[in-house]
Amino acid sequence: MTLPVLAIVLFDGVELLDFAGPLEVFSAANELSGDAPWQVLTVSLGEPEVSSAHGLTIRTDVTAEEAPELHGLLVPGGIGVRQVMKNPAQMNWLIERGEQAAILMSVCTGAFALGAAGFLQGIRATTHQQYLDELKQFAPACEVVAGARLVRAGRILTSAGVSAGLDLALAVVRDELGVELAEKVSAYVEYPPTDAVDPSVFPAPPS
């Protein structure tokens, strides 16, 4: 049986914790579930090896051309996201795969790419708290939410900066795999998710 694929896209200049945090949470969910529910992949938008914003070299699982059908797609932030937005081929890939994904996610300034791709028009979203005004440049019709770790808008989830990707990933585990497993993962990674200032932005888990 083919497992649903959760893909985290990587590019030169990606912020390390933006993607490593969710990768840890998703991988822990697989390990703690007893029956791995997902295939978690890192996907390079360019060469198989990318360099993080702080110089760490990462070899991705697959390139964009090799990526299978996706269930979930996560776009992290970092200084390199602006170069992605200037690359038509990479943006076209994000648009095509983002339209097909059941869950579309961004961490930090990864929301810029989602905004530039047209996914945030007319919905609520957030990004790193220092870049809220800049997000409006890429998604003028987006309702940018301040003071939130995580914002949900149907299948689209956006988080604030860096460590907030952990909140996002734990919310996805909770929604897809249940509260009990999400609590186990939270305990394993020793990170309790932080509720947003506005409870309507980060609602209670489904019963």
Structure, explained:
With 207 residues, the chain is of the alpha/beta class. It has one domain (5-189): Class I glutamine amidotransferase (GATase) domain (Rossmann fold). The chain has helices spanning 16-33, 81-85, 88-100, 110-116, 132-138, 164-177, 179-189, and strands spanning 5-10, 39-44, 49-51, 57-59, 62-63, 72-75, 103-107, 124-125, 143-144, 150-153, 156-159. The model is unreliable at 196-207 (pLDDT under 50).
Quaternary structure: single chain
Strand element count: 11
Taken in chain order, the helices and strands follow as EHEEEEEHHEHEHEEEHH
Low-confidence stretches: 196-207
**CATH-assigned homologous superfamily:** Class I glutamine amidotransferase (GATase) domain
- Structural domain tally: 1
The biggest beta sheet, please?
Answer: 7 strands, mixed
Order the strands across the largest sheet as they lie in space.
5-2-1-6-7-11-10
- What is the approximate shape? globular
Structural class: alpha/beta
How many helical stretches? Answer: 7
Helix percentage range? 25-40%
- What is the name of the CATH topology? Rossmann fold
* Radius of gyration of CA atoms, rounded to a whole number: 16 Å
Strand content: 15-25%
Spell out the key features of this protein.
207 residues, alpha/beta, Rossmann fold, seven-stranded mixed sheet, two-stranded antiparallel sheet, globular, disordered C terminus
